[in-house]
Amino acid sequence: MNVIFWAGDSTVQTNDYTTYPQTGIGQVFPLFIKEAYRVENHAKNGRSTKSFMDEGRLAAIEERIGEGDFLFIQFGHNDEKVADPARYTEPYTTFIDNLGIYIKVARDHNAYPVLITPIERRCFQEDGTLGAGAHGDHVAGMKQAAEKYDVPLVDLYSMSREALQKVGEPGSRKWHMFFPEGEYVQHPEESKDNTHLRYEGAINYASMIAKGLKQLGGRYAELLLDDLNL
Fold first, then answer.
1. Alpha-carbon distance values, 135 to 38, 48, 101, 104, 139 (Å)
2. How far is residue 119's CA from residue 199's CA, in Å, rounded to a whole number?
3. Which of 39, 40, 47, 80 is least enclosed by beta carbons within 10 angstroms?
4. Residue 32: which residues within 8 A CB-CB, separation 6 or more?
5. Of these residues, 147, 162, 181, 183, which one is catalytic?
């Protein structure tokens, strides 16, 4: 059985009861793939390409990844934190260099790296329109890395912006940790989190990644269930 290893942050991580109803994209992605594959989700809250490596998380993947496996690399939210030197990466230099290290880990083990741009935040303005965007430079940097290292890329950022614009500000709340006080016993307080996802949002964005993989074709489309309607 081949494995999809996932390196990323809180939008991807697998959550447990203590963080319910927060749900990560990697947590629900097994719903989209054939039984011959499984997901091993190493994504963790708050990590950037830099801190993920510094904590030995990429090394843990390197110990386990093998021929025919996949490494999904999805970062950006925390790489942009300029005030935090433990996580910040400059989008057109260190960010690209770091992505190159992840890609090399996969290729050194005859596995297949895939770059995935970060999801957009719910950055709606007062007039209800979507703002200019939260991750522009790091998205551009990841696209440059895809070209530099000749790696397939799924542009989740663009797909998520399009989806947010289509559904609008009120409609998109159900995708995110944005809900009134008392809605959840496990999370009784009000939440106005425009970044992290609930189950419906995780499913929604995971389906976009599946769509991107299907468009890539070949071995990337082969991961997916045959009857997906994307």
1. 29, 13, 21, 24, 6
2. 15
3. 40
4. 206, 207, 209, 210, 224, 225, 228
5. 183
Average pLDDT, the chain: 95
Which of 77, 135, 196, 207 is labelled catalytic?
196
pTM for the whole thing?
Answer: 0.95
Q: Tell me the two tokens of residue 36.
A: 């011959």
By DSSP bridging, strand 2-8 and strand 70-74 are: parallel
What pairs with residue 73 in β-bridges?
7, 115
In the set 10, 48, 51, 191, the catalytic residue is 10
Residue numbers in the chain where pLDDT is lower than 50: none
What pLDDT does 14 receive? 97
Residues 22 and 7 sit within 8 Å (Cβ to Cβ): no
Note if 196 is an active site residue: yes
Amino acid at position 152, single letter? P
